[in-house]
Amino acid sequence: AQSVAQPEDQVNVAEGNPLTVKCTYSVSGNPYLFWYVQYPNRGLQFLLKYITGDNLVKGSYGFEAEFNKSQTSFHLKKPSALVSDSALYFCAVRPIPGGSYIPTFGRGTSLIVHP
Amino acid sequence: DSGVTQTPKHLITATGQRVTLRCSPRSGDLSVYWYQQSLDQGLQFLIQYYNGEERAKGNILERFSAQQFPDLHSELNLSSLELGDSALYFCASSTRQGIDEQFFGPGTRLTVL
Hints:
- The complex is a heterodimer of chains A (115) and B (113).
- Chain A is 0% helix and 54% strand.
- Chain A has no helices and twelve strands.
- Chain A starts with a strand and ends with a strand.
- Chain B is 0% helix and 53% strand.
- Chain B contains no helices and eleven strands.
- Chain B is globular and about 35 Å long.
- The mean pLDDT of chain B is 93.
């Protein structure tokens, strides 16, 4: 069975500082990994994904994530946080090959960027 | 705008009633997913359809059912509603299964009184 852990319910960071939102996963085999963001009263929006290749993935709005197979992690990062980045962030994973086509989502991490 | 539309945006109903939530996927997307989001349970996968056929089931109650029509829109039917069914219900679509990211609709907020 696949699972995702987002160990922090909330991350607080000052505007202009770097931010990291953590994600670790457990799957049989290799993973597809995704990050989504949810702004208040909105649906989830896709940020980036790792399928194969370069371990550093760049996505929307200046976000990037690093796939670390040995640590089974896929942390989301941004060099300089904006107040507008404040939102709920979800990590998701599904195994390859085969298995369920349905990604498993983490419980989400609330990012609060202070002015 | 993700291109996925959901109606209605808000729904208030009473316990024991039945409601239907509607979803239109992005143009060209064959796969539709339904999720329930609540504060205590997080984002829960309910059911997936691919080109009209049910492909995967998650934590969907027997009181809930869904279908995908030939024009690819989907409906989620919730019956014998209970207070605990109050939640945000999201529809998402993707081009292919698994490898592609999902595009989420704005959600339907269901309140059961």
